[in-house]
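2024-03-11 09:14:02 INFO worker-7 job=invfold-0412 stage=load source=structure_tokens
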């Protein structure tokens, strides 16, 4: 099992997509082990996007992500990191296939609704950054039907 960090960005919250997005992850069969709404501080946003600090879009990205509430989540499942990335779709919403979250709801690269960790190391880093030790340990009985 892996746990991945997922964040609905300010555009997803403002557009009323929180329930729709949670529904997709839940119905896929992933287990929700962390959930909170917050307005990210400058420090938190900078730490989260530190890998992009030299990129030309960085300042705009930090301004966007701190502009209002985000919904931070942790989802667990077999290969949860790549499963979630596939549900999300590629970065540019205009190029993302219909059926993916960005493909269905996004028209832009920056305003692309949602973040998902891209590898085990980044998932570990991001979960620690956003949730510290707050994750909820529980068994989801439906998993007896989700997995063989
Ligand atoms: P992803 O979110 O698909 O993992 P990323 O890690 O390459 O994409 O970039 C992080 C975020 O930065 C991305 O979701 C939106 C923004 N971003 C990336 N490339 C951009 C660009 N060329 N112009 C504007 N924003 C960009
Ligand atoms: Mg990324």
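2024-03-11 09:14:09 INFO worker-7 stage=emit residues=148
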């Amino acid at each position: 099992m892996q746990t991945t960090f997922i964040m609905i960005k300010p555009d997803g919250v403002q557009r009323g997509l929180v329930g729709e997005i949670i529904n997709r992850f839940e119905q896929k069969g992933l287990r929700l082990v962390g959930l909170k709404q917050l307005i990210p501080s400058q420090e938190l946003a900078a730490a989260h996007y530190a890998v992009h600090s030299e990129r030309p879009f960085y300042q705009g990205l930090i301004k966007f992500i701190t502009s209002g509430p985000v919904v931070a989540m942790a989802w667990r499942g077999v290969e949860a990191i790549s499963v979630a990335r596939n549900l999300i779709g590629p970065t540019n919403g205009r190029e993302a296939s219909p059926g993916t979250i960005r493909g269905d709801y996004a028209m832009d690269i920056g305003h692309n609704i949602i973040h998902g960790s891209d590898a085990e190391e980044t998932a570990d880093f991001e979960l620690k950054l956003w949730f510290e030790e707050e994750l909820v340990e529980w068994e989801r009985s439906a998993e007896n039907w989700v997995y063989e």
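2024-03-11 09:14:09 INFO worker-7 stage=report msg="Strands lie at 2-8, 31-38, 70-77, 114-116."
2024-03-11 09:14:10 INFO worker-7 job finished
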